[in-house]
User: Fold Histidinol-phosphate aminotransferase from Dyella thiooxydans.
Amino acid sequence: MSVLDLARPEIRAMQPYSSARMEASGGQILLNANESAWAPFGEAGVGCNRYPDPQPAALVDALAALYGVRREQLLVGRGSDEAIDLLVRAFCRAGEDAILIQPPTFGMYAVCARIQNAGVIEAQLATDFALDVDAVLAAMTPAVKLVFVCTPNNPTGQLIPAASVERLAKALEGRALLIVDEAYVEFADAPSMAGLIDRYEHVGILRTLSKAWALAGARIGTLLAHAEVIALLRRIMPPYPLPLPCVEAALAALSPPGQAQARGHIDQIKAERARMADALATVPGVREVLPSQANFIAVRFDDAAAVYQRLLAAGIVVRDVRRYPNLGDALRITIGTPEENTRVLDVLEQTR
Assistant:
């Protein structure tokens, strides 16, 4: 069985749009794409009067080297959100198929499914927010085509052991794609599970430059998956997804100096995460500091609403996650600079 047997047959059969940039490359006089021959006002040589490459070779090569995969196993898009949306549209028939998630988790999995009119099936996490593989498998139905797991999980920060992910991969073979969202893996004390895609053609890994690489505004995300899955998604992806300035920003961040800076910031975030967790545990009104392997900490409070308003009044915005299952008393606090983190603690300490 091919992994593409799980995809919508009409997607496999469709004739994709063929852009001018796809049909021809090279040449000095470009008169095939109805572009302007003049650069826009004020541009500093980026070339925005021309359409960008659909998958810029330099960026694809840089990301493939960073993530340890082959270039044909990699799709670059507008953040992880675009890859999630493409996966749902390619594999879930409206009104018939479904995805499976384990809330509380990243909300875009369910949003993309509902836009597609695909079902959303939920499996319970363990009481400590650990992945319950047995619960996931028990919740599976023939309609499920995509199973999303987020590790470290957002908004809890929980890391899923590699053994649990691989057990799930084995059990889902021939039944559904397993999509592992590693948006925060750079902050974890565990390696990426990207090596699974060479062993299981139905496993995909989501990565992003938004968090550890400080490029949230550039919207650069990546799906690592079997080459046939990547090729299928390219058929339904918009022809020019990556703006040239965003590509330039990503290439700068992935240069040797850019990588050195990012890794220095990652080390600092890990140290600050540990400091904040210890300090928050002593703050009056804090019920629990959830263990985190991400660049944030979820904290339970006696009165989370009052704490949120107190921080907001001091000019500090944190994430209210009380709407999530089993987090009705919690706020999520991103790790900032040492000075920002100290300011958070100072405001919270004022209740002493």
